[in-house]
Amino acid sequence: LKDSHTMTDTHARFDFATTAKPDIYKLLASTVMPRPIAWITSLDAEGRVNAAPFSFFNAVSSDPPLFAVGFSGASDRDGKDTLANIRTTGELVINLVSEELADAMNITAIDAPRGTDELALAGLATAPSEHVKAPRIAASPVSYECNVFQIIETGGAGTVLLARALAVHVRHDAFANKERLYLNPSNMRLVGRMHGTGGYSTTRDEFEIQRLSWAADGAKLQGAE
Ligand SMILES: Cc1cc2nc3c(=O)[nH]c(=O)nc-3n(C[C@H](O)[C@H](O)[C@H](O)COP(=O)(O)O)c2cc1C
């Protein structure tokens, strides 16, 4: 860490011009958290299904509905199979991960040889999609059928995918009120990725903050009570 950071009384500042790449990864992955996990199912050119989790992931637009996913390089081969499949087919399904699926998700992250059916290894059933050929993971509470919106070549080892959502499957019991599209997080029990090599969080520790409006709350905030 010698030259990469400077200290003040309250903070250490790391300048990414001089920070080693693995250290930048550590800092990002341990501070931007919890991260949702895109458990991506995709097909290779022969139609074989592949599944793997990606936590450099989030929804980044709703009109159009877009997700961003960050793929790191794969040291043992030329990129992740998931990314290769998405480049070949232009399609993917993003499944979300619940607590009871976390171990199965972890199995699908194994560095298996290309063409290995990780879903079979994890004992997971699939169900068909409509817009895309890749199947969804049947037990996942939420699955988005997606196609490629844009693939951004970063110039570094990483590649950023922008995926457009075409449809979403939501398990019936995830709804508190289907007509109003109110969902109940405690029925989905989605997990997030935390720091370190094996850190995860649940989504059970919730608190609420009411939104403020200038009309109702502005004067109070300005100390004019
Ligand atoms: C919870 C979790 C999150 C992960 N997030 C990412 C990620 O954001 N980007 C990435 O490139 N790899 C990530 N990985 C590693 C990939 O899942 C792993 O390299 C996997 O073997 C890739 O599979 P594939 O080659 O079949 O696509 C993550 C692994 C786990 C367990």
> What structural class should be given to the helix and strand makeup?
alpha+beta
Radius of gyration: 20 Å
SSE order, one letter for each helix or strand: EEHEEEEEHEHHEEEEEEHEEH
Per DSSP E runs of 2 or more residues, the count of β-strands stands at: 16
Task: Provide a count of the helices.
Answer: 6
Determine the strand fraction and express it as a percent band. 25-35%
Poorly predicted tracts of residues? none
Ligand roster: flavin mononucleotide
Strand order of the largest sheet: 5-4-8-11-12-7-6
What do the pLDDT scores average to? 94
Question: How are the SSEs ordered, and which strands pair?
Answer:
Elements lengths: L4 E3 L4 E3 L6 H11 L3 E2 L1 E6 L5 E6 L2 E6 L2 E7 L9 H9 L1 E5 L6 H6 L10 H4 L4 E2 L8 E2 L4 E12 L5 E12 L4 E3 L4 E2 L1 H4 L3 E2 L6 E2 L12 H8 L4
Antiparallel strand pairs: 1-2, 3-15, 4-5, 4-8, 6-7, 7-12, 8-11, 9-10, 11-12, 13-14, 15-16
The structure holds flavin mononucleotide.
Task: Tell me about this structure.
This protein has helices spanning 21-31, 81-89, 102-107, 118-121, 185-188, 214-221; strands at 5-7, 12-14, 35-36, 38-43, 49-54, 57-62, 65-71, 91-95, 126-127, 136-137, 142-153, 159-170, 175-177, 182-183, 192-193, 200-201. The mean pLDDT is 94. With 225 residues, it is of the alpha+beta class. The radius of gyration is 20 Å and the shape is globular. A hairpin with a 4-residue loop joins strand 1 (5-7) and strand 2 (12-14). The strands form five sheets. Strands 5-4-8-11-12-7-6 form a seven-stranded antiparallel β-sheet, with helices on one face. It contains six helices and 16 strands. 19% of the residues lie in helices and 33% in strands. It binds flavin mononucleotide. Flavin mononucleotide (FMN) binds next to strand 5, strand 7 and helix 2.
